[in-house]
Write a structure and sequence with these properties.
CATH architecture of the largest domain: Alpha-Beta Barrel
Number of helices: 17
Order of helices and strands: EHEHHEEHEEHEHEHEHEHHHHHHHHH
CATH superfamily of the largest domain: Aldolase class I
Helix content: 40-55%
Radius of gyration: 22 Å
Shape: globular
Structural class: alpha/beta
Number of strands: 10
Strand order of the largest sheet: 1-2-3-4-7-8-9-10
Length: 420
């Protein structure tokens, strides 16, 4: 049997809505390698995005393979079936080797009482005084507490087990990287809750390599972190400690690491993420999905002419259909509709006015986070343009690619993984 796929210490999830920026994204990882840090790309695109745009996972794989071949990339790279369920997994089997198991719908649904009782009986080590190395204070738990946590998360973990076994049967064990997403729930998991979840995952024999817990604060699409950075830093370190302990106690793979979802543009917390992974000698996976699509728009606007006209048209249509576009993302966007410029005003903007409002530059007084968030969810508008939009990307490839590479490397990879 060929060697099992192991996710390296540092990896970045890169979304590419229209499968045109793989080379530009890979160029950012090459820059990291030149700076002395290996960061492997994981191209991710969800079932929902494929459905909206009318693409197939084979196209994401093809774009990644072409980029790797043309730029001579020798490190690992993966393609992620982002947020798949048992209903949507099949279309990703052939093309993907990283699977984010999305069990959000099962979180909070009570598992069978016998299963909960059996879980509690299997894990007496999680009752009483629980000490996690590198967390100062021990946790004091009861059987009732363990039962409550199991009731919230056990059904979700069991569903993850079901998806994992389907994948193992069809792809073969070790032929893909499994991640479990636990971030779409009402409140952040405490370190002891994360440890309990990991114990349940171990019981299901899912050899996860990353887990995405819910952190404190808001992780809105395409804009900065909103919340208490100090509290986030404490939680992040304690989660790293819980993972370290779970690797030793429950036999997970040694490369198990945290995954930060909606991780793009969270500039306020990149420094503390970097400091924590250095302190713990840990790895981290950060997903930066929609930011590349926004850099395409910035590049088109910067190019002027037809590119700028298309960027303006995207905004005009997004503004007209804002409610429909925002609905699927309601929990992860926070738009102040009073801050959105009128389309007739935008139609008279220069390239600089458009890019200043859209580019995530907190030093620029013209930057408009509401404008940015609406366009973030507005990729459906560009998809309806079809070939006209894709032609514009091709005609302005150089300027678009420069924006994509600069954004991914300078604003994301460098502060998270390199640290300066």
């Amino acid at each position: 049997m060929s060697k099992a796929i192991m996710l390296p210490r540092f990896s970045v999830g890169v979304g590419d809505r229209f499968a045109h920026q793989a080379k530009a994204q890979l160029a950012a990882c090459i820059k990291a390698a030149e700076a002395g840090v290996d960061v492997v790309p994981v191209w991710n695109k969800s079932n929902r995005e494929h459905t909206i745009i009318g693409t197939e996972p084979t196209q994401t794989r093809a774009a990644a393979d072409v980029a790797v071949a043309s730029l001579g990339w020798k490190q690992p790279y993966l393609v992620d079936a982002d947020h798949i369920t048992i209903k949507t997994v099949e279309r990703f089997l052939e093309s993907c080797d990283f699977f984010t198991l999305d069990v959000a719908e099962e979180i909070g649904r009570a598992a069978a009482p016998d299963d909960v009782d059996a879980f509690v009986a299997r894990h007496p080590e999680l009752i009483g005084e629980v000490r996690i190395p590198r967390i100062a204070e021990p946790f004091h738990t009861t059987g009732a507490f363990l039962k409550d946590v199991a009731n919230k998360f056990l059904a979700a973990v069991q569903e993850a087990g079901r998806i994992y076994r389907f994948l193992a049967e069809h792809k073969g064990e070790g032929r893909f990287v499994p991640e479990i997403s636990m971030d779409e729930t009402d409140s952040p998991q405490t370190p002891i809750e994360l440890l309990i979840i990991l114990a349940a995952i171990a019981d299901e024999k899912i050899p996860i390599q990353t887990i995405a817990p819910k952190f404190t604060g808001r992780f809105n699409k395409g804009v900065d972190y909103v919340g208490d950075v100090g509290q986030f830093a404490k939680e992040f370190e304690e989660d790293l400690a819980a993972i370290d302990f779970a690797v030793q106690r429950y036999g997970f793979l040694s490369n198990l690491k945290l995954s930060v979802h909606s991780g793009s543009d969270k500039f306020s917390i990149y420094k503390v993420i970097h400091e924590a992974v250095v302190k713990f000698g840990a790895g981290v996976h950060v997903k930066t999905a929609g930011t590349t699509w926004l850099e395409e728009l910035i590049g088109l606007a910067e190019a002027g002419g037809n590119g700028l006209e298309i960027a303006k048209e995207v905004y005009r249509e997004a503004f007209a259909h804002a409610e429909e576009l925002c609905k699927p993302y309601a929990t992860v966007i926070d738009i102040d509709y009073n801050r959105l410029p009128q389309p007739e005003d935008v139609s008279n903007w220069t390239s600089e006015q458009y890019t200043s409002a859209l580019r995530h530059d907190l030093q620029n007084s013209a930057y408009n986070p509401s404008f940015r968030q609406l366009l973030h969810v507005g990729f459906k508008v560009a998809s309806k343009m079809g070939q006209r939009y894709l032609n514009a990307l091709q005609e302005n490839e150089e300027i678009v690619a420069r924006n994509v590479t600069t954004n991914l490397y300078e604003r994301h990879i460098r502060p998270i993984f390199i640290g300066h």
